[in-house]
Amino acid sequence: MNDYAGISVVLTGASRGLGEAVARRLIEGGAAHVFCISRTIHNDLCTAASAKNVDLRWTQCDLSDTRATTDVARAVCEACIAEAEHTAVLINNAALLEPVARIGAIDTQELVDLHAVNTVAPALFANAFLAASETRAHELDTRILNISSGLGARAMAGVGMYCMSKAAMNMLTQVIQTEQEGEPHPAWVCSVSPGTVESHMQKTLRDADEAHLRDRETFRELKRSGKLNTPEFSAAKILSLVHRRDIASGTILSVADL
Ligand SMILES: NC(=O)c1ccc[n+]([C@@H]2O[C@H](COP(=O)([O-])OP(=O)(O)OC[C@H]3O[C@@H](n4cnc5c(N)ncnc54)[C@H](OP(=O)(O)O)[C@@H]3O)[C@@H](O)[C@H]2O)c1
Predict the structure, then answer these.
(1) With a cut of 70, which residues of the chain have pLDDT below it?
(2) Which of 24, 25, 39 to mutate to test the pocket of ligand 1 (most atoms within 8 A of CB)?
(3) 7-195+230-257 belongs to which homologous superfamily?
C-alpha cells in the first residue's frame, strides 16, 4: 500500500485510540511527512515510521496550554506546508471527553481545559495551517479534517461541554468553507464523526457515574453487543477523505456515510 505517498500531515492526538490508528495507516501508506502532536510520544509509531522511511516528527504539547499550542501550531503547520509535495492535510483529532457532569456541577478548570483542547486548539491549528498555506495554495491540495461527533448535533446530559465543543467544531468547518469559497485555490474542509470507536474515551463513558451520565448503559450495551468500530476501521474511512473529490467542502458527515 502506498496510498499516501507525497502527502504531508499534521495530526493532533496521535498517541492512542483513533489518532494512533490514523498515524499507523499513514505510515503503512508511505506518507512523506507526519507531524504528530500529543502530550505523550508513542515510541512504537516512531520505530514503525523509521522502518518505512516515513519522516515522522513528534511534538509533545499539552493542548490545554493555549500559549504553547499557538507556537506549536505555527511551527508544525509551517513545516508541513513548506515540505509538502502535492497535498497537505491537517487532522484535528485530539479531544477530551471529561468533565462528565451536569452543568451546575462542573469543575471550572475542567470546563476551561476541555474548551482549550476541543475548541480553541483546532481553531489555532486551522488558523496556522491556512496562514502557512497562503503562499503555496496554487500548487498544493490543502485539506482540513475536523474529527467531530454525532454529539455535536445531539444534546446528551452529562457531557454538555463535549457536545458544545463539537458543535463549535462543526461551525468552524462551515465558516472555513464559506471563507475559502471564491478563493482562487480554496482549501477543502469537512467535519467527520468516526462513529462509536473502542478507545480510552469510550471506556470513560462506560465507567462514568450513572448519576452524571444517564446514557451510561447505552455505551455499555454497545460494547457488550460488539457494535463499536475498531480504531482501524474508522481511521481507514477517515483517511479515504484525503482522496475524495466528490464530497463538497464544508460537509458534516460520519464514517457511516463513507
Ligand atoms: N471514541 C469514540 O467513540 C468517538 C466518538 C465520536 C467522536 N470521537 C472523536 O474522535 C477523536 C479521537 O477520540 P478517541 O476515542 O481516539 O480518544 P482517546 O483515545 O481519548 O485519545 C485522545 C487523544 O487526544 C490526545 N489529547 C487529549 N488531551 C490532550 C491534551 N491536553 N493535549 C494534547 N493531546 C491531548 C491524547 O493524547 P495524550 O493523552 O498523549 O496527550 C490522545 O492521543 C476525538 O476528537 C473524539 O472526540 C470519538
Answers:
(1) 1
(2) 39
(3) NAD(P)-binding Rossmann-like Domain (3.40.50.720)
